[in-house]
Write a structure and sequence with these properties.
Low-confidence stretches: 1-31
Structural class: mainly beta
Strand content: over 45%
Mean pLDDT: 84
Number of strands: 14
Shape: globular
Oligomer: single chain
Strand order of the largest sheet: 5-6-7-8-9-10-11
Largest sheet: 7 strands, antiparallel
Helix content: 10-25%
Order of helices and strands: HEEEEHEEEEEEEHEEE
Protein name: Lipoprotein
Distance between the termini: 92 Å
Length: about 220
């Protein structure tokens, strides 16, 4: 009889312990039915505690699955950077093109031959500081070369030095052969960067042009 009572006592104890453990598990619902999914095709980590969160959800208005990238610090959402239909190739949704500390480069690519759209974004609040067509960059020296499109027939090549807070409009390559045949984004690239100067050159051996600019 004592043995039966002991067995019942042990059973009741473990049953109560199991129920307590079940109650301690808290499932937090995801906001707006958005589910964070990994892996993403590109690196999503940024410095200073920031990252990009890749999410997929069903849009009840559009009646289709959508995917998005959201700028996050810790567990706090700052801003949704882009949203496209799901599935679509990740490089069209966007990826990190450069991390400059307080800011980062967000790029969208739409296939061979098409320009890569870019936005220079302030991490703290998601503000777009610069936008245009990506050409080249040097992340370690915080140098960005991009094209600012004024209208359908006018564009300017911009050299942005984030370390020294300087911006320069580059016109030395406008009349080059490679720019006339194609366009500036496929013509010019950053050759070298030092603490004193930035060297740009044409990506063409037939019509090689090299220009130096003080920082």
């Amino acid at each position: 009889m004592k043995l039966i009572i002991q067995i019942l006592t042990i059973s009741i104890f473990f049953s109560c312990s199991s129920k307590k453990e079940e109650k301690s598990i808290v499932h937090r619902p995801l906001p707006e039915n958005k589910i964070e999914i990994e892996p993403y095709d590109f690196d999503t980590l940024l410095t200073r505690g920031y990252h990009l969160s890749y999410r997929v959800h069903f849009d009840t208005i559009e009646k289709q699955n959508m995917q998005s990238l959201t700028l996050v610090k810790g567990e706090k959402d700052i801003i949704e950077l882009n949203e496209t239909s799901y599935p679509m190739i990740h490089k069209s949704l966007g990826y990190i093109g450069g991390d400059f500390g307080e800011t980062f480069l967000f790029i969208q690519s739409y296939g061979s031959g098409n320009p890569n759209q870019m936005q220079l974004i302030k991490k703290e609040n998601g503000t777009i500081l610069k936008e245009g067509i990506f050409v080249d960059n040097r992340e370690d020296e915080r140098i960005l070369l991009y094209i600012e499109t004024l209208n359908d027939d006018s564009e300017k090549l911009v050299l942005l030095d984030l370390k020294n807070n300087k911006e320069k409009i580059i016109t030395d390559f406008n009349n080059s052969i490679c720019a006339e045949i194609g366009n500036l984004r496929d013509c010019v690239l950053i050759d070298t960067v030092t603490t004193k100067e930035v060297v740009l050159k044409t990506d063409s051996e037939e019509n090689k042009i090299i220009r130096r600019y003080n920082r």
